[in-house]
Each structure stands twice: as C-alpha cells, then as structure tokens.
C-alpha cells in the first residue's frame, strides 16, 4: 500500500470483513494482504477499484445503509463507497478450518459496542468453538477461505456454516433437516444475496444433480442493522444443538454481553431466548443450476466457461487446470464413453 498497484487482485467479498480488522489489532494493509485470489467482483452490489493509497477504516453503521459521517458501504439499494482496495484472480488450495483467536480480549470493543459489526476474526473464533463442542458438525470453515472459492472437501451432510454475503452482512447456511439438494439460509435481516454468495453456498453443498434449491425459512428478524453476526452465531449454535432457529426468539439486548462471556469462558452456551412452537414457513426459495466438477453456479458475465464438445456440459475454465486447448475439451464422462 505504498502507492504501487498490487500484483494480484482479490474479491471484494473476501476483503470486506477483513477491513474491519483494525478492531482486533490488525491494520487494514495487513488485512488486505491476507486475502488472495479470485478475479471477480459483485454484480449486484460491489464495484471494482484499484489500490493506489492507504485505505481508511470502516466506520460502525447499520447494514441497511444508515451511516454516520464517515464513508462506508451501503446495501444493494445504494452504492458501495470505500477506501482504495484492489480486487483478484483464482486461489487454488483447500479451505481452512475456522481457527481460535489468541486475542479474545481485543474483541471487547467490537462485541460490547452497540451498532458495531462483527468481523471475520470474531465469526471464525465462534465457529472454532462450535467445532470443538460439536465435532460431528460439518462445515465451520474459515469464512475468507470460502470467499476465495478454494477447493472444498467431498460433499457433506449435516453442515453448518456462517457466510459473508455483502455490505457487512453475515448469515447461517445449513442442510441439516433438508432434503438432498436443498439448503437453508437463516438470514436475520433481508434475504439479500450476491452471485459470489450463491457460488460459495453451492460449492459447499456440492450436489451432483443439475440444480439445487436455496430456501430462506422465516426466523426472528433483528432490530437495527448491526447484529447480524450475533444472530448468525446464535443460529449456528442452535442448529448444532439439534434445535430449530425457526422456533426460538433471542433476547437481542443480551446477545453481545452473552457472546463476550462465552468467549472469555471458551465455551458457547445457548443465547438467552424464549422457545416458541410455530409451523415452519419459507419466506423465499431459489433454484440454481450447478455445473462443472465443483458443482457451483456460474456467475453471469464473470466466469469464463468451457463446454464439452461432445455433451455440451459447462465447466469453469479456472477449474480445468492443465487443459491446453479448451475448444477441443472433452469431459471425463465423455472420455470414458469414448474408451468403451
């Protein structure tokens, strides 16, 4: 960040949470450096910019676009305004598990200050605690690792994962209790989504069929716009305990102090809540076609694709490592048929 263009670019989806790293002791420059690879930017709600100077810290404000005096991001209804950042190309390698932080005391300002978003360090620390307490629960990958579209392990059933969507917004995604090829998105705010988010979710589900269904169950909505990370952690814990987030109502005023106490004790306990028994309803559904070996969606206008010249199936060009002549590409299924 000394005035030179960076040699690589990184998706804004993965950089955004890290820009709040100043609240946990990391500088913005270091945070940007931690992110790598994927030549994509949001279609719906981000823009691509070039890093030619030191970026400014993101101020605390609501996810709904209610801002203080300083520059920051707005939701899909507005435009994203932010300091200078560079945006990337694709990162190979496998996803990383969420890791415990050794700086829990540094989370106090972020956790105990109202109207302050949680960053990826807090989210990953909570997921790491969940993995220790519920080792059979799949998912719980480091959030930035997913944002980089890293190679995912084989498809799993019974996963819980917190995802970064856009504009400082976190949601919980799980296929627990779902039919095969269906995944629930527990969103405490507004059921927003981006192409990057859909690509990450379908990659984690890794469904071998032609399409997957995303559904947004009706759950408790948060008051204000800055507590989505708290609800994402609370819903992840509820799911890991075998309970349904649709049937609980959290005491939002106590969530911050409760989570900080859990971090200090090194154990996540149920958030203060009341249990209600309601018929589960789905507020929104979306069917998504999936392609390629990775079984992800294809981002319109962003992902170079290659079609098998025999069956016509589509593949991400960045997934076909070592293929020299993409125009003559024959997929593995058709290659087996040819040999027979």
Fold and architecture overview:
The chain has 340 residues and is α+β, with helices and mostly antiparallel strands. Among the domains are: 104-288, Adenoviral Proteinase, Chain A (Adenoviral Proteinase, Chain); 304-339, no CATH class. 24% of the residues lie in helices and 13% in strands. The protein is built from nine helices and ten strands. It has helices at residues 12-18, 28-34, 108-112, 120-133, 143-147, 195-205, 228-240, 255-265, 332-339; strands at residues 138-139, 159-164, 170-174, 182-186, 211-217, 248-250, 273-275, 282-289, 305-307, 314-316. The strands form three sheets. It has a six-stranded mixed β-sheet with strand order 1-2-3-4-5-8, sandwiched between helices. Strands 6-7 form a two-stranded antiparallel ribbon. A hairpin with a 5-residue loop joins strand 2 and strand 3 (170-174). The longest helix is centred in the middle third of the chain and has 14 residues, at 120-133.
Task: List its salient traits.
single chain, 340 residues, alpha+beta, 9 helices
Number of H- or I-type helical stretches: 9
Radius of gyration: 20 Å
CATH superfamily of the domain at 104-288: Adenoviral Proteinase, Chain A
Distance between the termini: 56 Å
Strand content: 5-15%
The CATH class label of the domain at 104-288 is Alpha Beta
Q: Structural class, from helix and strand content?
A: alpha+beta
SSE run: HHHHEHEEEHEHEHEEEEH
Number of strands: 10
Q: According to CATH, what is the topology of the domain at 104-288?
A: Adenoviral Proteinase, Chain
- Share of residues in helices: 10-25%
Mean pLDDT: 76
């Amino acid at each position: 960040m000394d005035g030179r263009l960076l040699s690589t670019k990184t998706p804004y989806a993965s950089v955004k949470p890290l820009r709040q790293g100043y609240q946990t002791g990391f500088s913005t420059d270091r945070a940007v450096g931690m992110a790598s690879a994927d030549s994509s930017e949001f279609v719906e709600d981000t823009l691509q910019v070039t890093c030619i100077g030191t970026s400014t810290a993101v101020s605390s404000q609501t996810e709904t676009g209610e801002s203080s005096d300083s520059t920051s991001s707005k939701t899909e209804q507005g435009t994203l305004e932010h300091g200078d950042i560079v945006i990337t190309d694709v990162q190979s390698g496998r996803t990383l598990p969420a890791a415990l932080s050794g700086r829990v005391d540094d989370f106090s300002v972020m956790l105990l200050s109202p109207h302050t978003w949680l960053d990826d360090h807090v989210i990953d620390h909570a997921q790491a605690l969940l993995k220790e307490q519920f080792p059979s629960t799949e998912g719980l990958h480091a959030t930035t690792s997913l944002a980089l579209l890293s190679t995912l392990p084989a498809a799993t059933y019974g996963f819980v994962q917190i995802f970064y969507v856009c504009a400082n917004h976190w949601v919980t995604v799980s296929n627990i209790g779902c039919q095969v090829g269906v995944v629930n998105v527990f969103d405490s705010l507004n059921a927003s989504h981006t192409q990057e988010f859909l690509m990450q979710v379908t990659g984690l589900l890794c469904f071998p069929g032609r399409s997957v269904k995303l559904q947004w169950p009706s759950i408790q909505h948060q008051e204000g716009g800055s507590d989505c990370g708290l609800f994402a952690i609370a819903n992840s814990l509820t799911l890991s305990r075998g309970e349904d987030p649709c049937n609980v109502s959290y005491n939002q005023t106590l969530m911050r102090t409760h989570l900080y106490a859990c971090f200090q004790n090194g154990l996540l306990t149920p958030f203060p809540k009341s249990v209600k028994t309601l018929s589960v309803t789905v507020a929104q559904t979306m069917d998504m076609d999936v392609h390629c070996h990775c079984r992800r969606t294809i981002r319109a206008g962003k992902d170079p694709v290659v079609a098998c010249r025999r069956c016509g199936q589509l593949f991400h060009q960045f997934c076909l490592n070592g293929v020299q002549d993409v125009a003559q590409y024959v997929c593995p299924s058709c290659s087996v048929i040819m040999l027979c």
